[in-house]
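Observation: inputs received (chain + (2Z)-2-iminopentanedioic acid).
Thought: call the complex predictor directly.
Action: predict_structure
Action Input:
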Amino acid sequence: MNRYLQKVLDEIREKNKNEKEYIQAVDEVLTSIEPVIEKHDEYENIALLERMTEPERLITFRVPYVNDEGKTIVHRGYRVQFSSLIGPYKGGLRFHPSVNQSIMKFLGFEQIFKNALTGLPIGGGKGGSDFDPKGKSDGEIMRFCQSFMTELQRHIGQDIDVPAGDIGVGEREIGYMFGQYKRIKDTYEGGVLTGKGLSYGGSLARKEATGYGLIYFMREMLNSNGQSLEGKTTVISGAGNVAIYACQKAQEFGMNVVAMSDSQGCIYDKNGIDLDLIKQIKEVERGRISEYIKVHKDAQYLESSAIWEIKTDIALPCATQNELNLDDAEKLVKNGVIAIGEGANMPCTKEATEYLLAHKILVAPAKASNAGGVATSAIEMSQNSMRYYLTFEEVDKKLENIMINIFNSCKIAAEEYNLGNNYVAGANIAAFRKLAKAMKAQGIV
Ligand code: NDP
Ligand code: 2IT
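Observation:
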C-alpha cells in the first residue's frame, strides 16, 4: 500500500482503538482512494488525510429527563461536527440504545462524502443519543427531545449545523426539537432542522426521499449494466422510513418485494408485501412487524437475519450498520442475487462487500445510493431560505436528477481508474476528489 496512506491508517487504528465502526468506515474509504493518493505527493505535507479524518469538533452532553413514573433518567447526547468544508455541518440525529462515539464518528465521516456527492453546499455531521424511544409515551419522548435540544441549541443554527432524522428520529421528534429550539432562541429559523412537518416549514417528498432515491439509483445502476428493475424479486430489510419508501417506489416500478423486517423478525410474503399494512403497523401503531401475519396468514415470520436466505434478484439492506455479513453475502450469491442497494449506512461488512464485488454483484454504496435523503434536506433548507415552497413533483424531479448525477459521478470515477463497475470505489473517489480540492483551496484549517 502507498506509504503515506498506510501511515495514516496505522495512526487512525492506534488512536481510535475502541472505535471499530469508525475504523471500518475510514479503512474502506482510504483503501479505495489509493490510486488518487498515488498521484498527489503534495497531500502528505499538508496532512490532508489526517485533517479529513479528524472531526472539527466532537460534542457530548448530559440529557436528563423525567419519565412517566417520576424517575429521573440520564442519557448521553452527541453531535459530531465533522467537516464544514463545503457547507454547514449537515446530518441526522439517531436515538438508539447502541449509539456511542464510534457509531457517531463513522456516520459523521460517511456523511462528509455523501454530502459532497450530492453536489449541494452541505458539510458533514451526525448526532444522537443512547436513548431508546421504543415503548416510551409521547410525553416522555417530548420531554427527552426538549432536554436534548436545550443543550444542542447552543451548537447549531441554519448556517452553522443543521440536524435531521435518522434511526429513532422522525417527524414527531423533529417537531418537539424544533419547538424547543424556537422557544429558546425566540426566533423562527426554519432551516435549523430538516425533516420538519409540512405545517411549519417541512418539504414535500422529504419523507419519501431516501427510499425513492435508493430506487432511482438502482434503476440507473441496473440500466447501465444492461438490466432493469421491472419484475425483479426484491427483499428489503428494516421497516422504517428508508425501507417503507424504498418499497413504495420499488412497487411503483414493478419490482416484486417479497420480504421486509424489523429488529425482531422478518416477514416473507410470496404474494408481494402489503405496504399499506406495514405502514399501519410501523408508522401508525409503532408496533412489531410480526403483526403482519395476523392479517396475511399465508406469509411466514422468520428471524431478522433469515431475510438474506430468501431467493432474490435484488437485496436492499435498509435497517442498520453491519446487518449483512459474509455469511449472508454467500447465501445471496448462491441464490442468484444480481444487485445490492445500500439504503442504510454501512449495512454490509467489509468482508461482505469484498465478496460481493469479487463475485461481480452490482453494489450500490450507501454514500451514493442513500444520499437522496440528505439531498432533499438541502432542498428543504433552500425552500426555508426562499420562504417559498415547491410542489411534490418539483422536489421529486430534483431528487431524481440528483440521484442520476450521483450515479454518473460514481461511474465516471470508476471508469477513469479502470475499476469497471465497482461503484463502491467510484463513490469514494468522486467524493474524495471534490473534498480534497476544497481542502487544498482553503489552506491549513
Ligand atoms: P427508522 O428508525 O425509521 O427505521 C429503522 C428500521 O430498521 C426499523 O424497522 C428497525 O426495527 C430496523 N432496525 C434498527 N436496528 C436494527 C437492528 N439492529 N437489526 C435489525 N433491524 C433494525 O430509521 P431509518 O429508516 O431512518 O434509517 C434506517 C437506516 O438508513 C439507518 O442506517 C440510517 O442511518 C439510514 N439512513 C436514513 C436516512 C433518513 O433519511 N432517514 C437517510 C440515509 C440513511 P424496529 O422497528 O424493530 O426498531
Ligand atoms: O444518513 C443520512 O444521510 C440521514 N440520516 C439524513 C441526514 C439529513 O440531514 O437529512
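Thought: report the result.
Final Answer: The pocket of (2Z)-2-iminopentanedioic acid (ligand 2) is lined by residues 90-92, 114, 164, 166, 194, 345, 373-374, 377 (CB under 6 Å). The chain has 18 helices and twelve strands.
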